[in-house]
Design a protein that fits this description.
Shape: globular
Order of helices and strands: EEHEHHEEHEEHHEHEHHHHH
Number of strands: 9
Radius of gyration: 19 Å
Structural class: alpha/beta
Number of domains: 2
Strand order of the largest sheet: 1-2-3-4-6-9
Length: 270
C-alpha cells in the first residue's frame, strides 16, 4: 500500500504530498493521521523553516471518499460526528503549525481538499486549477472549515453561491479574488511554492510564528484584544535573540543569519 503522505526535503523546505493518485488524492483514514504526524515532525526539526503541501500525480485533493462517507449512514450520530472530528483535527494541525505552510495546488481542490488548501498560510495555484465546494451536489453540507475559511476572503454572497451551486472556480479567479497568493502556469505551482517557502525558511522562526498567530486572530479579535496580543508579541520579540540578530544585521549592513540561531538552539536543547 502506498504511503499516505510522501515527504522530501528541498533545502530548509519540507515538501509533503498527499499520495492517493488513483483516487485523485481523496482522503483516507491514513491521511488523517499521517498528515498531522508529518507536520509535527517538520515542526520539531530545526533544519526545516517552512512546509509545502501538495498532491501527487498532478491533483491536489478531491476531498472525502464518497464510498467511506456512504458507509457512515449506517453509523450512530455519535460515531458519524467522531468521523468528522478526525478530519477537523487534521485541519487544525495545518492551521496551528508554527511554521509557514504553503499549499501548491494543481488540478482539483474539492470539498475537504479546498479546506486543506485554505487552512494553509499561503496558497499558490496553477491557472487551470479547480476549486469547488460541491457538497450540495451529493446532498451534504460543508465541513473541514470550508465556510469559515472562505468567509474570511470572499463576500457572503459569493460564499453562498459557491456552497449552494457547487460550481468549480479556476485558479485564475481565486487569484483575482485574492484567495490565491500566486498564480502560475500549469505544472508550475509546486516550484513557485517551494521558492516562496525557501524565502520564509531563511527568516526568523519565532517571529514568524508570532506573525502567523497575529494574522490568524486578526479577523476574530476586537481591536483592543488584537492590540493586547500585538503588545504581548512585541514584548517577546524585543527580548528575543532574533531581533538582536535582525537589528544588528541591519546596522551592520549584512544579511541576517537566523539559521545560525536555530542551529544553536538545537545544539543547546540536545
Amino acid at each position: 500500500m502506498n504511503e499516505a503522505i510522501l515527504s522530501r526535503r528541498e533545502g530548509a523546505v519540507q515538501v509533503l504530498s498527499m499520495n492517493n493518485p488513483s483516487a485523485r488524492n481523496a482522503l483516507t483514514a491514513e491521511t488523517y493521521t499521517a498528515l498531522p504526524a508529518a507536520l509535527a515532525k517538520a515542526e520539531r526539526d530545526p533544519d526545516v523553516g517552512a512546509i509545502v503541501l501538495t498532491g501527487a500525480g498532478g491533483v491536489f485533493c478531491a476531498g472525502g471518499d464518497l464510498n467511506r462517507l456512504a458507509q457512515r449512514r449506517a453509523m450512530t450520530p455519535t460515531d458519524r460526528r467522531a468521523g468528522v472530528e478526525v478530519l477537523h483535527t487534521m485541519i487544525r494541525a495545518i492551521r496551528d503549525c508554527s511554521k509557514p505552510v504553503i499549499a501548491a495546488v494543481e488540478g482539483a481542490a474539492a470539498g475537504a481538499g479546498l479546506s486543506i488548501a485554505l487552512a494553509c498560510d499561503l496558497l499558490v495555484a496553477a491557472r487551470n486549477a479547480s476549486f469547488s465546494v460541491a457538497y450540495v451536489k451529493v446532498g451534504l453540507s460543508p465541513d473541514a472549515g470550508a465556510t469559515a475559511f472562505l468567509s474570511g476572503c470572499v463576500s457572503r454572497q459569493l460564499l453562498t453561491e459557491l456552497c449552494l451551486l457547487g460550481k468549480p472556480v479556476t485558479g485564475e479567479r481565486m487569484h483575482a479574488l485574492g484567495v490565491a497568493n500566486r498564480l502560475t502556469e500549469p505544472e508550475g505551482a509546486l516550484a513557485e511554492a517551494i521558492a516562496m517557502a525557501q524565502l520564509l525558511a531563511a527568516g526568523p522562526e519565532r517571529a514568524i510564528a508570532r506573525i502567523k498567530s497575529l494574522c490568524r486572530h486578526a479577523g476574530e479579535n476586537t481591536l483592543d484584544a488584537q492590540l493586547d496580543l500585538e503588545a504581548d508579541y512585541m514584548t517577546e520579540s524585543l527580548g528575543d535573540d532574533e531581533s538582536a540578530e535582525g537589528i544588528g544585521a541591519f546596522f551592520g549592513k549584512r544579511p541576517a543569519d537566523y539559521a545560525a540561531l536555530r542551529r544553536g538552539a538545537a545544539v543547546q536543547s540536545s
